[in-house]
Amino acid sequence: MSSATLFDTSYEKEKRPLLSRLLDLLRPIYTAEELDALRIDPVSRGILSQRSGRGFVNRDLLETVLGNLLECAAPGSHNATETGDALGFDHGVEEIVDQLYAMIAQSLLAVEGPSANVESRAVQTTFALLGDIPSFKDRARWNRFASLKDPAVWDAYVSTRNDLCEDRLASLEFRSRIDSAIEARDYDVYRSFLEEEKLDFAFDYQMQLVVSSYPGWRVLFYHDTAHALTGTGESTTLDGVTREPVPLLPRAIAELGGRYYQADLHPETKIGDANFLEHPHRGLTTGQTGVIGQGCVIYPCTLGGISDKVRQRHPAIGDFVQIGTDAQLLGRVQIGDRSSIGINSQIYGYVEVKEDCRIASTVVIGTVLSGSGRPGRICLGEGVRVGDGTVIENSTELDLLIPDKSEIPARSHVVNDGFGNPRYLRD
Question: Which pTM value belongs to this model?
């Protein structure tokens, strides 16, 4: 297939019935207010058909298409709300179909060259991704909701206008109520709490504040789009539609996320929703084989790898985990649900941190190579507390097990006693 035939009659013939099904899927997920706010920026087919470099769609077009997809997830959050000649919903969705199809087809052409089935494969993958828009929209809202964990959403505007004193706000456990709402998958759990405290006036303003000025949920939307383009198999929303991994494009989307927000989220990282990325512009990195659960609060940190083998080599983070600023989690580290990692801490190698652990600041936990043998694991049991400045290391081939509910004092140095038990070199 050449660029001249990117939008030929066979494309139109395959697109039409799928477009009708996609529109039927998407219409019910929008309110009248959202449809009124939705704005899709058009791009001419002539521009979409132009090949750039080695055939890949240029970054300017990619920015436009990502902005349009973001509009589908959160209408009115990206493009201007007044255009004078806004596309209708059906026309707007068709415009996004054409734009995304062109990028996917161009990506395949860049790697494979002209092929008889590139067009059909690109169509299938396009509709598989757009069939994910209901999920994208839901995930984007939960990611915005999770951002309400930031105390700064109680800003001067909402506090001053409603005579809220700092002492009263400081006494309320907002985060735990937000986590309860996330677990129940019900926003009203939190809204009811606000109503009980006569603070319900703040919710809509704070959600508007997040959608307009917080970068974390946008970074995660970019990742959702890139991640979807790495998938394979049948669509869960459009029967008979299949997807395949797209070359080049997912990494280009991740690169744009890094350029705008300094958050380098690898497209293949598996990330749940209802996560709050705090200050991602200070730098956040995830790796290809990493996993992040739901309900987490993640400050600028590195979730990286230390192996050059093609295998599981990045951290797996559970649900409702907090990771502090400048923390480094490297390798096949596992962090259990509801644990927290303090600022400037380093955890690396074969380390497992079970549920409800609290690791303070500037802690170092890692497995150390000694000779040719692989070191055993370090396993922190449930509810372990590790004080500031502590070092826990294991250079033996036996696993080092820290019992449940242990409390390790600040600035301790803990090693394996040779039988798998902790030994303190100094307190």
Answer: 0.94
With 0-12 / 13-18 / 19 or more C-beta atoms within 10 angstroms meaning exposed / middle / buried, residue 406 is middle
CA–CA gap between residue 352 and residue 337 (Å, rounded): 12
- Domain match, 64 and 104 both: yes
Task: Name the DSSP letter for residue 235.
Answer: -
Residue 299's Cβ-side half-sphere holds a number of Cα atoms within 13 Å equal to 14
Instruction: State phi, psi for 317 to the nearest 5 degrees.
Output: -105, 130
Q: Do 51 and 125 share a structural domain?
A: yes
How buried is residue 314: exposed, middle or buried, by Cβ count under 10 Å (0-12/13-18/19+)? buried
- Is the CB of residue 264 less than 8 Å from the CB of residue 286? yes
Q: Does one domain contain both 298 and 422?
A: yes
Nearest Cα to 126, choosing from 25, 257, 229, 239? 229
Residue 177 lies in a domain: yes
Domain housing 374: 287-426
Considering only CA atoms, which of 367, 366, 423 is closest in space to residue 397?
367
AA identity, residue 381:
G
- For residues 37-60, average pLDDT: 81
Q: Give the 3-state DSSP-derived string for 164-207, with helices as H, strands as E and coil as C.
A: CCHHHHHCCCHHHHHHHHHHHCCCHHHHHHHHHCCCCCHHHHHH
Identity of the residue numbered 154: W
Mean of per-residue pLDDT scores for the chain: 93
Rounded Cα distance between 19 and 179, Å, is 38
Residue 329: its H or E element: strand 328-330
DSSP 414: E
User: What is the Cα–Cα distance from 86 to 80, expressed in whole angstroms?
Assistant: 10
Q: Is 117 found in the same domain as 47?
A: yes
Name the 3-class secondary structure at 154: coil
Instruction: Work out the burial of residue 219: count CB atoms within 10 Å of its CB; fewer than 13 is exposed, 13-18 middle, 19 or more buried.
Output: buried
Domain count, the chain: 3
CA distance 327 to 201: 36
Confidence of residue 3 (pLDDT cuts 50, 70, 90): very low
Q: Do 72 and 157 sit in the same domain of this protein? A: no
* DSSP output for 266-294: -TT-EE-SS-EE-SGGG-EEE-TT-EE-S
pLDDT digits (tens, 9 = 90+) for 353-406: 999 999 999 999 999 987 667 889 999 999 999 999 999 999 999 999 999 999
Tokens 């600022």 sit at which residue? 343
